[in-house]
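Question thread 4412

I'm putting together a teaching handout and wanted feedback from people who do this every day. The idea is simple: show students a protein as raw sequence, then show them the structure tokens that encode its fold, then repeat with a second protein so they can compare. Below is the first pair exactly as I plan to print it.
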Amino acid sequence: MTDGTTLTVYGEGELAARAGRLFDGATREFFCAAADLHTWSRPEARSGFVSRLRSGPTGRLAVRKLYTPAVLADEEQRLHLFDVAAAGGQVRLRAATLPHEAIVIDRRVMILAGRRGPRGREFTITTSSTLVGSVHALMRATWDAGVPLADCLRRETDGLDADSLAVLRALAAGLTDSVGARRVGMSLRTYRRRVAEVLSVLDADSRFQAGVHAGRLGLTGGST
């Protein structure tokens, strides 16, 4: 302890042991800013957070998660963000460097992520109202300049015309090529060429991945 309100711990294990209860104790606001999901938690902790969010008092608790676009490069992290959004949390991305990697809970306690060292990553926990208020203001300004996750994902389809979007919907529906081609009114050869174009634009490794992406964007169902 330094001044009675600040504590420094090292490594995620010690952070969980000394401050884990804080993550479950949020009642008004849970505000997280990080480069990616690896800053704060292991995969099992992430799934636990989503479960609590789904069953918690979402009407009172505002959950805000702010990341850099690097978080979208990893499929597991992308899916977690989709889950958070589906459970009622707000997710935004900001290309500029974040002022701090931090978590602020109910504007009364803050956890700052520091540098990595021999003892693990350094985390500072504080209830200093001055520090908490200052960092929260910086985070909020960065949040306001961020782009909602859904808007970022929609931009990924900017290179697709109406026919390609129809093909994407067919992929999301899990249709075979022959059935998909008939649904969108294309020859089988043209349909397959369009599928290849869609995969390229979305940087998807498979038709299934492209279909999942379409589902997350709400491009499911319906006919053309």
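The second pair follows. I'd like the answer to focus on this one:
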Amino acid sequence: MTACWVRGAVREIEADFQRSADTHLIRLPLPDFPGIHLYLKDESTHPSGSLKHRLARSLFLYALCNGWLRENSTVIEASSGSTAISEAYFARLLGLPFIAVMPASTARRKIEQIAFYGGRCHFVEHSAQIYAASEHLARDLGGHYMDQFTYAERATDWRGNNNIADSIYRQMAREPFPMPRYLVMGAGTGGTSATLGRYIRYQGHPTELVVVDPENSVFHDYYHRRDPQITSPLGSRIEGIGRPRVEPSFIPDVIDRMIAVPDAASIAALHWLERALGRRAGASTGTNLCGALQLAAEMRQRGEQGSIVTLLCDSGDRYPDTYYSDSWVAEHIGAIPPLFPG
């Protein structure tokens, strides 16, 4: 009976994939950077609304094929919100109970979306507490802890098979500069940066992978110091990226460069993007955009032309009470400088 249920669950997830279209690649005009083209891979159009839809699908398939998920299993995940929403989507698809373990400060809209898909939330005060709380819940309930922070880098087929890297290069094929000079990505689990970096090397592309990191995250320091014991007493204020500890799925050796981005700059980029694109994105997209614009400025200074690709990770509709609230930004981030001074 268990094997039959697993086969049916895998078919259900694969059928859902077949019903889903690829995400758009948007070219963002940069009149101040002639000959430099910036693209946003719009991951907000997935059925569960973010880049994490890809990861959640891979994690569920990985758990099913490893024999970790059974009929009626309770699925538990440690998350800052978006992965939990996507996993709640797939849990509902398979008729499984789902619990998200997350900081109490997580955006209210994300909590509502988890509930919409039938999941429930277990709150902790600090992001560093999500791991132990998830393990305890899984033991107490006899459920399965998905553990995205350990399995993200291995659950996705990085060689191709329509992963995000393969999709980007196919969509760039007819652009003026089809081979990106840079791919820019923030790291939460490190799973997407691992997929991108491995794919670039496997295909022999000259593209450089640049990972951006917000304040209160240890990834930037770890990349340079390689001390796995580094921790941060504070959690990232940019939901979806940045971690207070070095996660097992963060693979530094597939990354060519890391850029530390101040949180205020991420928010400034968000508001600039809203004017340029006509809609809102989440704060991790602002961090990505800051890194991409810094690289564009460096290319312009060197007299280079080419293309840069980054990700629009989720919609700003999830953050009306935080990143798009002047009072919240003033209290938690501070003064926001202009993105382009002068």
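Top answer:
Good format. For the second protein you could add a caption like this: The radius of gyration is 19 Å. The beta strands are 25-28, 36-42, 75-78, 98-103, 120-124, 144-145, 182-186, 208-213, 257-260, 306-312.
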